[in-house]
Amino acid sequence: MADRQIFQLDEKTTPVATDWVAVQDKTGTAGAKKVSQTNLAKGLKVALQLTTPGGRLTLTTAVPVTTSNVSAATTVYYTPYVHNIIMLYSGTAWEAIEFTEVSIAVPSTTVTPFDVFGLSSGGSLVIETLDWTNDTTRATALAYQDGRLVKSGSATRLYLGTGRTTGVSGQTEDSISKRFHWNYYNRVPRQLKLIEVTNHTYATNTVRPWNNA
User: Fold this and answer.
1) What is the pLDDT of residues 101-113, one digit of tens each?
2) Distance of CA 117 to the CA centre of its chain
């Protein structure tokens, strides 16, 4: 029987970047079966930054993709969908946060778009909203941080999507006739239908809803 090498493993409570971490590499030589902590951290950073946020904005708790009409909703939820990890910027680096469903009240506005952002509070995910100035202008623009859309001037706020309030203050809707919520990540096809039986004439070169309804 061939000799076997047995190593004693000690826990190092304060590792440094030049320390080595043992890895399994069946095709490598014994001396090569290790990786520096610095290179390991670089690899993990790349892998994590490629991770798409795993949740979706929804108007029904614990239902990431609704199948029935939701009207008069007063709460926006961000719930796990493909997984429960989200990468958030700390101001110096991206950090992976494991999350459960979080929610926020619909803004107290009427017929106004609003953006939804995710951020870290004490290491946990929270979401916040920001109303647009009008139908075509954000109050605060979006910007890119390492290739991801964030709130301009506040990169710790990751852009998740946009909603819109109805004609009733503090309410929004996600129905087959009014898709007032849009996810930037993990989009899925949604049906949208409008039946208008009233005849009308419109000769102005300005875009508007059908029959202005």
Assistant:
1) 999 999 999 999 9
2) 8
